[in-house]
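Figure 2 data, in text form.
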Amino acid sequence: TIFFFLHLQNTTMSSSSSSWTWGGLFDVEKQLGFYAQYHHNFVNFCIHVIGVPSIFWSTSVLLAKFFPFPSITPDFVYNLHDMMGAPNMPVTAVTVLGAVYSIKYLIMDPFAGSIATALIALSSVTSYNFAQNNEHAVAIAAGIKITAWAAQFVGHYVYEGRAPALFDNLFQALFQAPFFVLLELMFQLGYRRELATRIYKNAEKDIQEWKKSKNE
């Protein structure tokens, strides 16, 4: 755990593509601008549209299976989960992680964050039900997770021609991937065109600078 946080701090503070500040943590343009430069290729992006939700959901299955917290779950949470279609679902590690993701996304962009929160809640409920009702849940979730990660590495090294973002900034990559996919799809439908244009232009600039440094 100590090693993980030391690595997280080191990769975050040393990222060359964006200056790190706690305020910047919730700056949608900076955060997505960093991530966009690693997902410029259309094929790689399409792989991520499928792969990122698959990784998120399969991780949720594993967390729901192995990290439930019934002893700290208040009655209203059981009632809420019951209304959502997951009877007897306690607070789990998925609940905690989902809350962290949702709060961050809501601050970054309230409208898109609301959609993300609904999708996270859906993932939480379906992953819990799957974990509890399928005897092969762990094996299936692990298989999905491994396959999705492998596909994304293919997307980066074969199509993008660049290592994944997590090698440059672990924190941003892990936290931004689901929101980036959602917002990218929303951009394609016309959402916040000016923001999308700025992000794409900055990403193109960063890519050119990366290619230049690579050739030096």
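Caption note: Residues 42-66 form the longest helix (25 residues).
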